[in-house]
Amino acid sequence: MTGRVNLDRGAGIAIWRQISEWLKSEIASGTFETGSRLPTEAEIAERFGVNRHTVRRAISELSGEGILRADQGRGTFVAAAPMDYPIGARTRFSDIVSGQNLSPDGRLIASAEEAATSKLARLLNVPEGTNLIRIEALRVADNLPMIIATSWLVKDRFPTFVADYEKTGSITKTLEKAGVPDYRRKESRISAERAQSGDAQYLEIEPGDPVLVVESVNVDPDGRPVQHTRARMVPGRIQLVVDS
């Protein structure tokens, strides 16, 4: 990265905004291609003759727009277009990812047993205090973290769920092995929050960055609740599409 770029300091346009517009134009022209890593903040700051804080503000703005993607410990990259993620009766991560010519993967992060709270008991239609399995899973598309999800299932119904999921990396395949050949989404509730430090580390974003939250309940063909999930998604990488 060579050559000094002159800024119009008397134009009434914030310096960070001018830098963000320059980055946009460089991306549009193909100088920085999709998936490529940007120069460091220090290199960009030197080119414009500004401090790194100003550059960081410009990058943060473009990250919020989904144009850039900051991967913790790796740098800042030009983001691909967000992946469409339909929310409907048959929401399947692997099918959604594969259908967009990407490679899906899933990885178990942690698991535990816990008693059903009143909320979980209501969602899973079991008595309060019922023994549940809780799993934390990371879902990836083309090696890019997309979703970290916490799921709860009734232990007596799915006693080997954790071990089976570790082998398959697929909720659908694991449920099939447990005798649930099909399931559908009963409901989804969409909100947003700031990423906690643990989630941020796995999703390769900064703590406090916004994440989409989708809480859902899946039921078997008889309408019996199978699984409650609370998924946190990176908005610059996923675009929710609500089926109607």
UniProtKB/TrEMBL annotation:
Organism domain of life: Bacteria
Species for this entry: Roseibium hamelinense
HTH gntR-type domain boundaries: 13-81
Sample GO molecular function, one term: DNA binding
GO biological process terms held by the UniProt record: negative regulation of DNA-templated transcription
Alphabetical UniProt keywords: DNA-binding, Transcription, Transcription regulation
Protein name, UniProt field: GntR family phosphonate transport system transcriptional regulator
Record-linked SUPFAM superfamilies: Chorismate lyase-like, Winged helix' DNA-binding domain
